[in-house]
Structure formats: C-alpha cells, structure tokens
Automatic annotation (TrEMBL):
One of its GO terms (molecular function) is kinase activity. It comes from Alishewanella jeotgali KCTC 22429. InterPro entries: CheY-like_superfamily, Sig_transdc_resp-reg_receiver. Pfam families: Response_reg. Signal peptide: none annotated. The chain crosses the membrane at residues 12-30. Residues 592-708 form the Response regulatory domain. It comes from the Bacteria. The modification 4-aspartylphosphate is found at residue 641. This is Multi-sensor hybrid histidine kinase.
Amino acid sequence: MSAILKSFYQYLLSLYLFCSLLIAAASWVWQRQDEQQRLQLQLQQYAQIIELSLRPNLGQISAEQLTQRLAELQFDATFPIAALAIYQNDGLPLAVVGDIARLPQRVLPNLNSQFSLLADEYYWYAQQIIRTQTLPFEQFGTATQTEAVLVILPEPLGIGWRELWPMVLAWLLLTVIVLTNAVFFNRRGHQLRQAIDSLQREHDQADIGASVAKSGLPELQPIKQLLAEQHQQRVSLEQQLDSTRMQQQQLTKALENTRQEWQNTVTAQLSLRQCVNRWLHQWQLLDLRREQLPEPLFNVLKQLQHNYGLLQFGDFQCTPVVTSLPMWLAEQTDKLAALLPADSSLDWLEYPELNQYQVTLDQHSLLLAMQAMLALSMRSETMKRLQFRIGIDLPDSPRLTMQLRCDGNGLPPHVLQHLKSSHSSELQWRDADIAVLQLLQQRQGAELRIESLEGLGVSISFSLPIACHTNADASLLGPLLLFDADPERLRERLHLLSSCTVQIIGCSDLNELQQRLAEQAYSLLIIMLPGQAPSQQWQQFLQHCTLPMLAFAAPLNFRQWRQLLPCYSSSLFCLQFIKQRLSGVMSPSSKKLLVVDDNQTNQAFINILLQGKAVTVCAVETAAAALWQCKQEKFDMVLLDIQLPDLSGTEVARQLRQLEDYQSIPILAFTAHALPSEQAEFKAAGMDDILLKPLDPCKFDKLLATYRLF
C-alpha cells in the first residue's frame, strides 16, 4: 500500500508542477499581449499630439529650436519617454532628445503606414510620419512635399503585479486543491494500511474475515481473497527462495573450492616445473664434472641424482617385502663397497636381532639410504675407515637403525648448514646425498641425526619404521675362535656371532691366539687380518696353522695377504656371509641343497623334511641371491621356483648352466603346474626334473635319492 501511495503522490506532484508551469506561461503571454496593446495605444496618441504640435512650425524653426520643442514634449508626456527624435527623408537624425544611445542610427520611413510600433532587440519604439507643405531649411531641400519621421522610445515598463492577480489566484486555487487531495488520500491510505497490516498478521481465512468485518471498511472486502492467495503464494515463494538460496550457497562453496583447487594446482605445477628445471640443471653440472671427480664418487652421485628425481618428480612406488636382512645385506655388500675410494675400508657390524627376525620394508629405499649415507660420509676429509652398524630397535614400534661412523676431520661447515636449514629442492649438484636423506625422512617417517666433530670424524644415524617377524632358522654352529686386532670391533663381532654359534671366543693379540689354540679345540678360526703388511710372525703362524679358517683383509693390504692364504675383503664380513662360509667349512662331507623360493612356508617344510639327514640346506628368496650364492660356492642340487619376484626360474637355470661348476649339477623345477608345453620349456632351459607343489614327502625323498643327494 505504501508503494501505491508513493506512486500517487509522485503523480500528483508532477501534475501540480505541470499546471503551475502552464499557468505561468499563459500569464506571461497574456501580459505580453496586453502590454503591447496598451503601449501601442499610448504611443499612437502621443505621436498624434507631437505631430499636431510640430507640423505647423516644422519647416519654420531651426534644429536647435526643434530639439528644444522635443524636450518640452518629452517632459509633458503622461508616461515615461526615454528618447524623442526627428529623422529626415534620408534616414539621418535631425533633432534628438533623451537617451541617444538607444535610438537607431538610421531610420527608413514606412510609407505604407502612418504609424507603426516596432521592436528592437531589447526595446519597443514607435514611428510616426510627419508630412509638411514647405520646408525652408536647407536640410530639407526645395521640395513642395516634405516628410519627416518621428521616433518615440518609451521607458521599459515593469511588471504590473496588480495586473497579474488572475495568475496568482489560479495558482493559489490549484495549490489548495492539490493539498486537499493529498491530505484526504493520505488519511485514507493510512486507514487502509493499518487494516491491511492487521489482515496480514492473520494466518487463516476465518481470522482474515473477522479482521475485515472488524475494520468496517467496504474497500477491504475484495482484499480478503487477494490476501489469502498472496499468503499461499508468499509461502511457496519463500520455500522456493530458501531452496534456491541453499543451492546458491552450495554452488558458491563448490565454485570457491574449485577455484582454490585450481589455484593450488597452478601453483604446484609452477613450483614443480621450477624444481624439475633446477634438477636438470644440477644433473648437467654433475655431468660436466665427470673428469674432475673420482669414479666411485661420480657413480654414487649419479645414482643419487637419478633416484632423487624419481622420489621427487617420478612415480616412485614403495613395495615393502619380507626380507632377511643378513641375506639381503650379503647381496649388497659388494655394490656398497664399490662406492668407496680404494684406500678406505668398510666394516659391517650387525646386531644379533638381525638373525632372529625377518623384516618388512622397501628394499630399494633401504639401499638408497645406505648409498646416501656413504656418499655423505665421504665428505669428511682424510676419511679412511668406516663402520656401518645395523640393528633392530624393538620397543612398541620396531625400527631398523643404521649408524655409519667414519674417521677424518668431520663435515665442512657449509654441509652442516645445508643439513640444518636447506630444503631439498634448493641444494646443489654435490648435495644429492642430503636431498635423498631428507626426502626419505619426509616420506617414510624416517629419523636422521648427524654428529660431526672436527678431527673426530662423522656419525650418521638413520632409522626406518619396519614390521618384524620371528625367523624360524635357529641353527647353531660349533665353537668358534675370532681374532681381531681392534678391541672395540672385536666386541661388536663377538656380539654379532653369538646369536648363531654354540660358543665363540675372541682375542686381539697373536700370542693370545696361539695360546687359545693350544688350550682348546675349535671347529673354525675367523681371522680379521691386521691392517699392515704381513709380518714374519704372522707368516710363520699361517704356515703351521691346520685349523679350518676364514680370513678377511682390509682393501689396502688385501693383495699382500692374498699371496699367503685365501682371504676375503673385510667389507664382505656380514652375518649371512659368515653363516654361508661356516656351513661349507664345517660340513665339507655333507651334500648341499640350494632352495630358491620366495615362499617361506615351503622353505621351512623342506628344512623339516631334511632334519637328521646329511644335507645342508641354503635357502634364498630371489634370483639375484641364488646367482650370487652359486658363484660363491658349489651346490650338489638346486631346487628352483619358476615364479620368482625378480626373474623367472627358467632364466635363472639358463644362467646357471653357463657357469663352469653347474653344467652337470641337477636343477629341479619347483612349480605348482607343469603342462606339456611348460615341461618342454623347462627342459630347454636346462632343468633335469620337476617337483610339483604342494610337496609330497615320499616323492621328494625318492627324487633326492635318485640324484644321490643322500
């Protein structure tokens, strides 16, 4: 209702203003015409009076007298006269009185009219033609009929307010009518608005009817049904509005989320592109320094840069597998030792827990962490000796702990600064080891701790979360004697070998070693040869020693010791390597069976079947481990699974047949199915027979007897 009244008032005001302008325009036109008529009448009468006054004497008086006469006539006029002038026939003024500047400079007589009222740009003025018979003045010439033009210029008349009373009266009447209607409609509208507000507060038809009846306004009767319909429409529209508002909010939120995701994606892509470009640049810088770096260092940095790219930008998939750490470490010692300079030595120190548990971890990540730790340790100047300790921490959450210690002057200050504050993407080409360790720390929940003291070397600790499983292999070896000139390293290795031997005794002096051998009989002697060249005393001892032994020498004097006795590099000393060598040395007369199967249940079942028999079982889970083991020692039979995780069994058989010691050794296919086409493939690969899964103990014994394994 307020909107209707507002529209009405706007219309009324517009009409009022239009009528006011119309009255003003009509009054102005009427006033103009009335003023012109009155002025024309006054000027015509006044002009006739002047003509009658001047005609008799116009040709007999001089111009000065004529001017004086005009001045008298101007003064005697009944209405204000601004100027009077007499013009000759040629239009030039003859006599002038009053405001000369407002008079026209030249006037041409209008011969068609005796009197005429003319309008200048701003003023009215009148022309009256005066005719005379004789004009003696030389100005008029000698014509018998002479004409002169009288010009009368009146003063501008002001507005006569008394004459405008009709306009004022009409405007006042209009104003009264408009105000009266405005007051009436305002009161009526206020009553209607109160009534409609009362009706709108009712929620049902009966209440609306009661309100209409109570109001007593007949104008509200048509509104009754209208309000009911509007109420229903309003409820429906409010529901639609709420639903639309909710949908709009959801769409706005979804749009905002999409925009935020898009911005995050663009930012991530730009950041990734910058990191990739930086990585490629660092790779190029590393390649340019191929000739300047030692070959082992260049190779390890190249591998780390490649693996860093896979970790940071590639599809690097962690694949945790059940792993026997002693066996896995035995496969990796050669690779890791090849990364070090030729004049350095690496000692592996494993804790007994490694022999008691199998762990589930990603082998590639573990190897990558070891490579990065070795590369970082090589930054210690004058580094010669390294010790790599591996163990399992068994609190609530098992972790594989690795600690690498090396001598030298410690890490340079800028390397320590990078370890503390630098992000992996901001490191230089030489910092690939730091970058890999930081990425593994972030993505696999690893812990990294580095201690560096000037002149005392570096200690790098790295631990990974793992899952542990009890190892079923609990075989113990006979009494051993261990010699190591380094007392600290001797204690560590005694602790390591104590988990797999019945008795082990250690000594760090050659004289003590000879005394121990004289006092007690031992099954095997393990010697960590001294770091210096062989002395005369050592040469005599080795010549007279008849006890089976395993000897390990440091790389620096390895060749000199190798001339005296068969020995291995000290970097190969690990638990699995020792166990394999001990089995061969202490049981030379027993047959040896190599079982290659990634199923630990099958391995355990074969061990149970061969208990009490003169057969030594060596079990591995991968093709790489099987090939490495066969190169280290000769087995009497190989039981080979066809589906291995890294290589097929047929391919392993082909490679084994190329070895000199395995051209005639029986190789049996260990598989769950053998179709005729598959049997032909097994034969073509060099396999002698097939053993089906699940394993039948009777057939297994018969097959071993056929090939004279017992």
